[in-house]
Specification:
The chain has about 180 residues and is α+β, with helices and mostly antiparallel strands. The protein has helices at about 15-30, 35, 55-60, 95-105, 140-145; strands at about 1-10, 40-50, 70, 75-80, 85-90, 110-115, 125-130, 150-165, 170-175.
Length: about 180
């Protein structure tokens, strides 16, 4: 049994800007945990333990889900001992609906589910810095990567199936229609 996440993915200008910011974090501030240990920028919908990822992939692929636009109002920070800098996402109807469809069609194949959009604590986000981020870094991050702190819009065009432990790997990918 392995840890897997089902996540939404995107490409385009925002994707490129996120990767540009991650390179600046790494080069200028030695903040590299997310860029070296995590899969492509994504929004996790569901995670947990399963030995049935191939079944889940085949079931969700048959659904022929559609692309949709999603807006971000900008950055957020979870202010914990290890701060988490992330891109926030609106909870629009398309995101809510695709999340429900993914959960409905996959959760029974998980032996343990750790995260779902049903959890009132769930936040749709794309994490950019965590673990090696310090509060003292936030001002310089803002100054060097203020282009990522603005409002954004992207098209959600993929579903990723991500194996994770200490490192994330995309094992399966569905392109949305």
């Amino acid at each position: 049994m392995k840890n897997y996440a089902i996540a939404l993915g995107f490409k385009g200008k925002l994707y490129n800007n996120i990767n540009k910011a991650l390179k600046i974090f790494k080069k200028d501030m030695n903040i590299k945990f997310m860029s070296t240990n995590h899969a492509a920028p994504h929004i996790t919908i569901l995670s947990g333990k399963t030995k049935n990822i191939d079944k889940i992939y085949k079931k969700i692929k048959k659904l022929k889900l559609k692309k949709f636009k999603l807006k971000s109002p900008g950055m957020g920070v979870f202010a914990n001992e290890d701060p988490n800098l992330y891109l926030r996402w609106e909870q629009n109807l398309d995101l809510i609906n695709i999340s429900k469809i993914i959960k409905k069609n996959s959760s029974k194949f998980f032996d343990e589910v750790k995260q779902t959009p049903d959890n009132p604590m769930w936040v749709p986000k794309t994490t950019l810095a965590w673990k090696d981020l310090k509060y003292t870094d936030l001002n310089i991050i803002y100054k060097k990567t203020n282009f990522i702190f603005k409002k954004h819009e992207t098209v959600i065009s993929f579903i990723y199936f991500i194996s994770y432990n200490s490192h994330e790997t995309i094992t399966h990918k569905i392109q949305l229609k």
